[in-house]
């Protein structure tokens, strides 16, 4: 395995089940059962294209995020594969295991996790992630949402732009003064 990394997550699988390896951006490789791979359209398609003799590389997903993705897929490996059906999922509630699984992540980890799930085309997981976001924003006013998601106001953005512009002008002025030769006037 590259960089001396070992398979971090060895799923408990029946001896007859086929396993594949996926490789995260940090070189960590993870064993994934075939049934769990089916949860991801992207992984399933790559297995069909690249084959099973090599680790499937994912340069845009880090090891900790990939570990969580694989854990989720292994937990749901025997469940149906979802197609996007937005209307049918509106009133759904998150199963207890999934709610607990998603709640234990920090916001910045959850964001990376949800992006990875979307990239890997794990439709059920993306839907569950969106449901978690819905629960996070439910009954909050715009100010609370700005705070929670660190969204700046127009005034804050304008102040930042002004500060950056002034700093840039100051640097430019300092550069112009240092490049002037002594005894010349410009």
TrEMBL record:
Cellular component GO terms held in the UniProt record: cytoplasm; nucleus
Pfam families xrefs: Skp1, Skp1_POZ
Matches recorded under InterPro entries: SKP1, SKP1-like, SKP1-like_dim_sf, SKP1/BTB/POZ_sf, Skp1_comp_dimer, Skp1_comp_POZ
Keywords: Ubl conjugation pathway
Pathway: Protein modification; protein ubiquitination
GO molecular function, one term: cullin family protein binding
Protein's UniProt keywords contain Lipid metabolism: no
GO terms under biological process: protein ubiquitination; SCF-dependent proteasomal ubiquitin-dependent protein catabolic process
Occurrences of domain SKP1 component POZ (ranges): 22-78
Gene3D superfamilies: Potassium Channel Kv1.1, Chain A
Domain SKP1 component dimerisation residue range list: 123-169
Family listed: Belongs to the SKP1 family.
Function: Probable essential component of SCF (SKP1-CUL1-F-box protein) E3 ubiquitin-protein ligase complexes, which mediate the ubiquitination and subsequent proteasomal degradation of target proteins. Regulates cell proliferation during embryonic and larval development.
Protein name per its UniProtKB record: Skp1-related protein
